[in-house]
């Protein structure tokens, strides 16, 4: 028992250290990084594709329903994967230029997750509050409320957002995995690339004896919405560079009951920021928490 407690304490300390390092990087970046396109840090309607705004208008109208929404999106098989327009071409270009500017700077950089070696954590860059949170709350939630009500689509109350980059001399592909998210939005920002399709298999909690895979092309400026638990990966690109904005959206109401990574009741410990999205963040006296098992 004592050994288990020591292990838990060591893990808590390791997590605290990682959070502390990330907060330090964020502080240095906010003080020292010289932005190239400061306008891309604050979400504006003009960044969003007209088709996306139309979808949001529909989803926030009084009679909105799933059947009506499906007229605006492209659906892939019965896997509950949907393609929809998200950004304008101009925004994607300016955003990539900003990310390249950051990449070329001597600022400290964290890795997006345990699998992607190249990319940018948008929280550290300072985009969470002014861009990703309003995008999730005002625009994405009305859509996910209709598409994924069973996964807390109406109350996705936190996120982890990052950009991943693939190029010939860096990462080429991404192996099969599921996300630490209830719902994921994956938007292709460009640039030009060939191959590099996404593939999707079974839903993690619903495996079939012979898993069926589908390939989905990622189209520039458009996004794919899928369940975080849908097994997926990215095939190797053959040329060019592929940049994607990934938003792992989380519902504390769902994951407080069952951790999506280990399928058990989470063992919560205090954390800073959004933690891993387990506890509603706006209640003042409830500390943020992470589940000890979950993968960073
Ligand atoms: O490269 C992609 O489009 C997939 C990225 C992804 O699945 C992830 O980062 O979780
Ligand atoms: Fe993923």
What features would you describe in this structure?
It holds the Pfam family OGFOD2-like. GO terms for molecular function: dioxygenase activity; iron ion binding; L-ascorbic acid binding; oxidoreductase activity, acting on paired donors, with incorporation or reduction of molecular oxygen. InterPro entries: Oxoglu/Fe-dep_dioxygenase_dom, Pro_4_hyd_alph. It comes from Meleagris gallopavo (Wild turkey). The protein folds into two domains: 32-250, q2cbj1_9rhob like domain (Jelly Rolls); 253-295, no CATH class. Helices cover 30% and strands 26% of the residues. The protein contains seven helices and 14 strands. It has helices at residues 2-32, 50-59, 66-70, 89-104, 122-125, 128-147, 252-255; strands at residues 74-76, 81-85, 119-121, 158-167, 174-177, 183-190, 193-195, 198-203, 214-216, 222-227, 230-234, 237-250, 268-271, 288-291. Strands 1, 2, 3, 4, 6, 7, 10 and 12 form an eight-stranded antiparallel β-sheet that branches. It has a four-stranded antiparallel β-sheet with strand order 5-11-8-9, with no helix packed on it. The protein has a two-stranded antiparallel ribbon with strand order 13-14. The longest helix is centred in the first third of the chain and has 31 residues, at 2-32. The protein is globular, with a radius of gyration of 19 Å. The two termini are 26 Å apart.
């Amino acid at each position: 028992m004592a050994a288990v407690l020591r292990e838990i304490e060591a893990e808590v300390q390791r997590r605290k250290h990682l959070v502390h390092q990330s907060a330090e990087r964020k502080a240095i970046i906010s003080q020292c990084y010289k932005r190239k396109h400061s306008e891309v840090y604050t979400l504006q309607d003009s960044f969003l594709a007209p088709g996306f705004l139309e979808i949001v208008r529909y989803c926030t109208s009084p009679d909105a329903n799933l059947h009506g929404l499906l007229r605006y999106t492209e659906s892939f098989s019965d896997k509950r994967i949907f393609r929809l327009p998200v950004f304008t071409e101009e925004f994607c270009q300016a955003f990539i230029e900003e990310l390249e500017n950051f990449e070329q700077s001597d600022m400290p950089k964290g890795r997006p997750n345990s699998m992607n070696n190249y990319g940018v954590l948008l929280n550290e860059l300072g985009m969470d509050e002014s861009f990703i949170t309003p995008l999730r709350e005002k625009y994405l939630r009305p859509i996910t409320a209709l598409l994924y009500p069973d996964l807390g689509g109406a109350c996705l109350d936190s996120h982890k957002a990052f950009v991943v980059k693939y190029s010939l001399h860096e990462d080429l592909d991404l192996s099969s995995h599921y996300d630490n998210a209830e719902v994921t939005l994956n938007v292709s920002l460009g640039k030009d690339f060939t191959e590099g399709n996404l593939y999707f298999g079974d839903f993690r909690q619903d495996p079939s004896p012979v898993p069926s895979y589908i390939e989905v092309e990622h189209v520039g400026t458009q996004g794919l919405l899928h369940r975080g638990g849908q097994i997926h990966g990215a095939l190797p690109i053959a040329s060019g560079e592929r940049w994607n904005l990934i938003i792992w959206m989380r519902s504390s109401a769902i994951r407080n009951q069952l951790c999506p990574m280990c399928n058990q009741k989470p063992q919560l410990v205090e954390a800073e920021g959004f933690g891993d999205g387990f506890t509603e963040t706006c209640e003042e006296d409830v500390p943020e928490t992470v589940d000890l098992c979950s993968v960073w």
